């Protein structure tokens, strides 16, 4: 058995594991289908700026051990405190630029651009 | 940035016997002198001679937190309560400088209140942290603790000749910014302090630091300098806060700034790591990084002194 033969099955297994992880995460967080996900990790929203089509649902998931919130500057949306792996979703109906922050860590800022 | 008290060998050995070091701040002639608490605790007579215990500060109890850094925050709060209840003379007041809960959930507030009810000292004053005000209507904290301030979050009271001022700096965050008091609260403070004698000892407490410790992490209050202007004429000012889960102190003229440890979990020193999240430490080190602060009125003119004690 050469190195390539050894590696290929391992990669396949890894992919399967990764896919299983994604599926179970989606179930646990109950993210709406077709939504765009923004993560909060290491005290940052990523991506910090996201462009979506009008009518899209954006889901934020907290990947830190510290809770985060998602609070829009204009008061359009406001999540409760999201503990680790909890999610919040909001559907953007109208085009525009929406800035938001984490009210617990206000240096965390992000923007959703709706076209 | 934490305990910097120079110790004698004998003092250091005493600290080791207690398992963790706290810091005591004695004020004489407007200047605080830090003394290791473990040393003071070993000498009850000497400590008692310094004055009458006035209040105990507890902070950042984070009831509801259950992560690796401390899976049982109720137990560590209980340990802190035991230390307070075991003081030879009970303090008149308990001051909680915020983050009572972790996620502002009703069940977390209920458990916190249940735990606090074990305190032998029944008069408790609070100010909320940003973790206490994340519920959509920002009402869970105020429903339970809002009465003293008429739901405004800021208020004052007098005890034993000391004027206490509770401020709130977690409601008006600006994106990317620090905590904010706001013009309305600053105007109220000006009115509250007006006409008070400059010899009145003042204790001001809020959750977030009222002095800038580390701006990139929001460890400060944007309009605190305006507050400081109003306090400058007083001969003895003690400014307390929580939020950063570690002791940092500063003396500036007649003003002593002091941040308290958390009873729940430690946080990294300013700028170490991605952000101010829970700091995981070996289990045996945890008690030494959690604790309470107590203050005494010293029979010296207009003087307060503070003690820090750990849960070790």
Give the helix/strand layout.
The complex is a heterodimer of chains A (115) and B (312).
Chain A: H1 3-29, E1 36-41, E2 44-46, E3 49-52, E4 56-62, E5 71-72, E6 87-92, E7 96-101, E8 109-114
Parallel strand pairs in A: 1-4, 3-8
Antiparallel strand pairs in A: 1-2, 4-6, 5-7, 7-8
Chain B: H1 9-18, E1 23-28, E2 31-36, H2 37-42, H3 44-49, E3 52-58, H4 73-85, E4 93-96, H5 106-116, E5 124-126, H6 140-145, E6 155-159, E7 162-166, H7 183-193, E8 202-205, H8 224-231, E9 237-241, E10 249-252, E11 255-259, E12 291-298, E13 303-310
Parallel strand pairs in B: 3-4, 4-5, 7-8, 8-9, 9-11
Antiparallel strand pairs in B: 1-2, 1-13, 3-12, 6-7, 10-11, 12-13
Helix pairs in contact in B: 4-5, 7-8
- Helical stretch tally of chain B: 8
Biggest sheet record of chain B: 7 strands, mixed
Q: What is the CATH C-level name of chain B? A: Alpha Beta
Q: What is the CATH superfamily label of the largest domain in chain A? A: Cupredoxins -  blue copper proteins
């Amino acid at each position: 058995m050469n190195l390539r033969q050894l590696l290929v099955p391992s990669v396949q297994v890894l992919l399967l594991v990764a896919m299983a992880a994604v599926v179970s995460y989606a179930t646990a967080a109950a993210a709406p289908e077709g939504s765009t996900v923004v993560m909060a990790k290491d005290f940052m929203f990523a991506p910090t700026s996201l462009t979506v089509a009008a009518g899209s649902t954006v889901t934020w998931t907290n990947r830190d051990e510290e809770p985060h919130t998602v609070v829009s500057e204009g008061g359009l949306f406001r999540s409760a405190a999201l503990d680790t792996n909890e999610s919040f979703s909001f559907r953007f109906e109208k085009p525009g630029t929406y800035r938001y922050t984490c009210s617990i860590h206000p240096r965390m800022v992000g923007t959703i651009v709706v076209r | 940035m934490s305990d910097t008290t120079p110790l004698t060998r004998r003092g250091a050995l005493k600290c080791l016997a207690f398992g963790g070091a706290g810091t005591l701040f004695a004020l004489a002639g407007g200047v605080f002198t830090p003394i290791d608490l473990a040393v003071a605790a070993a000498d009850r007579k000497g400590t008692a001679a310094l004055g009458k215990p006035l209040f105990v500060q507890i902070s950042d109890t984070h009831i509801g937190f259950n992560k690796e850094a401390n899976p049982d925050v109720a137990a560590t709060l209980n340990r802190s309560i035991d230390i307070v209840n075991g003081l030879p003379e009970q303090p008149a007041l308990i001051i909680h400088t915020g983050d009572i809960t972790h996620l502002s959930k009703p069940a977390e507030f209920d458990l916190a209140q249940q735990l606090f009810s074990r305190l032998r000292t029944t008069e408790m004053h609070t100010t909320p942290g940003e973790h206490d005000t994340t519920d959509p209507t920002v009402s869970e904290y105020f429903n339970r603790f809002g009465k003293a301030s008429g739901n405004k979050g800021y208020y004052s009271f007098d005890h034993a000749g000391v004027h206490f001022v509770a401020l709130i700096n977690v409601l008006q965050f600006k994106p990317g910014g620090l905590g904010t008091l706001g013009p309305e609260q600053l105007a109220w403070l000006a009115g509250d302090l007006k006409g008070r004698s400059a010899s009145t000892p003042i204790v001001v407490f809020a959750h977030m630091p009222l002095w800038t410790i580390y701006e990139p992490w929001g460890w400060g209050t944007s309009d605190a300098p305006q507050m400081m202007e109003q306090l400058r004429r007083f001969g003895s000012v003690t400014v307390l806060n929580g939020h950063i889960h570690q002791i940092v102190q500063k003396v500036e003229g007649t003003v002593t700034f002091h941040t308290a440890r958390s009873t729940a979990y430690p946080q990294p020193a300013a700028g170490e790591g991605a952000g101010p999240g829970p700091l995981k430490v070996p289990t045996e080190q945890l008690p030494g990084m959690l604790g309470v602060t107590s203050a005494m009125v010293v029979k010296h003119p207009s003087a307060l002194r503070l003690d820090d004690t750990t849960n070790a």
